[in-house]
């Protein structure tokens, strides 16, 4: 009914700009359930919306947030304080000082297979197969022929041991350990799963930390960075899947719908404009089939 009314208004001679806006609204629309009432009430009530619907650009806006990392140049200066003498020229000059010029290549590595029987983190060491997987991952990274700038890794045992082996293939590359990249429950998955249900407080605690890891490590290059960078992050499946969703501005609740093999490589590219591309997700094609696991 709403579409028919909109169509009649447009035919009756709405101005071009108004018609364009109207048709955009009609085309995007609202999800309709049985009779339309359930879905419409969900969108109308902020309490009923998910985190993704409230915070990120979605179907209602249909736009990419170019300032997703809060590093878009115009957001870093006060454009209202412009000189009456130089005007826009001064603004342009200031913007140049904040513009990123380099591309960041982010390689997210999932740790190798580890001992699941360990009760404490220190007991969850890599298995023999896990060590083989790390060797293969290290060899693959070395074969790419790029100069890696650093390796940032989770402070959990399985990530440290995976990094130890990978580092042998990349001599001279500095290492940084961080608690931010430790495994956890980033956000309650939607749709839910029946075999994994952490307590609500775990999402509350882990989610803030993993979101902090995303904000701290995943962003466009600093304006002072002159050359493209290649950085390795050795961490965990939940962390990587959440980061991918956030970087691509997909609903983060969908993170559990992706699957990552042990020792796999996920490659994100962040352009100076802030545009993000996913080159590979969970690549383990460099491993023989009998070496591939997902534990």
TrEMBL record:
Q: Which UniProt keywords apply?
A: Hydrolase, Membrane, Mitochondrion, Mitochondrion outer membrane, Necrosis
The free-text function statement in the UniProt record for this protein reads: Mitochondrial serine/threonine phosphatase that dephosphorylates various substrates and thus plays a role in different biological processes including cellular senescence or mitophagy. Modulates cellular senescence by regulating mitochondrial dynamics. Mechanistically, participates in mitochondrial fission through dephosphorylating DNM1L/DRP1. Additionally, dephosphorylates MFN2 in a stress-sensitive manner and consequently protects it from ubiquitination and degradation to promote mitochondrial network formation.
Name any GO cellular component annotation: mitochondrial outer membrane
Q: Which CDD domains match?
A: HP_PGM_like
Which regions span the lipid bilayer?
none
Q: What is its EC number?
A: 3.1.3.16
Q: Which reaction does it catalyse?
A: O-phospho-L-seryl-[protein] + H2O = L-seryl-[protein] + phosphate; O-phospho-L-threonyl-[protein] + H2O = L-threonyl-[protein] + phosphate
Q: Pfam families under this entry?
A: His_Phos_1 (PF00300)
Subunit and partners: Dimer. Forms a ternary complex with NFE2L2 and KEAP1. Interacts with BCL2L1 and MAP3K5. Upon TNF-induced necrosis, forms in complex with RIPK1, RIPK3 and MLKL; the formation of this complex leads to PGAM5 phosphorylation. Isoform 2, but not isoform 1, interacts with DNM1L; this interaction leads to DNM1L dephosphorylation and activation and eventually to mitochondria fragmentation.
What is the name of the gene encoding this protein? PGAM5
Q: Name one GO molecular function term.
A: protein serine/threonine phosphatase activity
* Protein name from the UniProt record: Serine/threonine-protein phosphatase PGAM5, mitochondrial
Q: Which family does it belong to?
A: Belongs to the phosphoglycerate mutase family. BPG-dependent PGAM subfamily.
Which GO terms fall under biological process for this protein?
necroptotic process; negative regulation of cold-induced thermogenesis; positive regulation of mitochondrial fission
The record's subcellular location field reads: Mitochondrion outer membrane
Gene3D superfamilies cross-referenced by the UniProt entry: Phosphoglycerate mutase-like
């Amino acid at each position: 009914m709403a579409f028919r009314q909109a169509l009649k208004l447009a035919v009756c001679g709405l101005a071009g700009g108004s018609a364009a806006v109207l048709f955009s609204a009609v085309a995007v629309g609202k999800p309709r359930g049985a009779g339309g009432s359930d879905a419409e009430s969900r969108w109308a009530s902020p309490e009923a919306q998910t985190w993704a619907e409230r915070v990120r650009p979605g179907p209602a806006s249909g736009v990419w947030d170019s300032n997703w990392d809060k590093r878009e140049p115009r957001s870093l200066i006060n454009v209202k304080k412009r000189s009456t003498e130089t005007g826009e020229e001064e603004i342009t000059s200031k913007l140049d000082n904040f513009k990123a010029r380099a591309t960041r290549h982010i390689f997210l590595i999932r740790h190798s297979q580890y001992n699941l029987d360990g009760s404490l983190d220190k007991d969850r060491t890599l298995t023999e197969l896990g060590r083989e997987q790390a060797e293969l991952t290290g060899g693959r990274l070395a074969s790419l022929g790029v100069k890696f700038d650093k390796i940032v890794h989770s402070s959990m045992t399985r990530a440290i041991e995976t990094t130890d082996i990978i580092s042998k293939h990349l001599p001279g590359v500095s290492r940084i350990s961080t608690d931010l990249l430790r495994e956890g429950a980033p956000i309650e998955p939607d749709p839910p799963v029946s075999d994994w249900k952490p307590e609500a407080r775990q999402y509350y605690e882990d989610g803030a930390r993993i979101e902090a890891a995303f904000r701290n490590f995943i962003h466009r290059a600093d304006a002072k960075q002159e050359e493209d960078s290649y950085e390795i992050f050795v961490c965990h499946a939940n962390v990587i899947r959440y980061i991918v969703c956030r970087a691509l501005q997909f609903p983060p609740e969908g993170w559990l719908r992706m699957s990552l093999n042990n020792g796999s490589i996920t490659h994100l590219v962040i352009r100076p404009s802030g545009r993000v591309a996913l080159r590979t997700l969970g690549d383990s094609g460099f491993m023989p089939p009998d070496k591939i696991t997902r534990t």
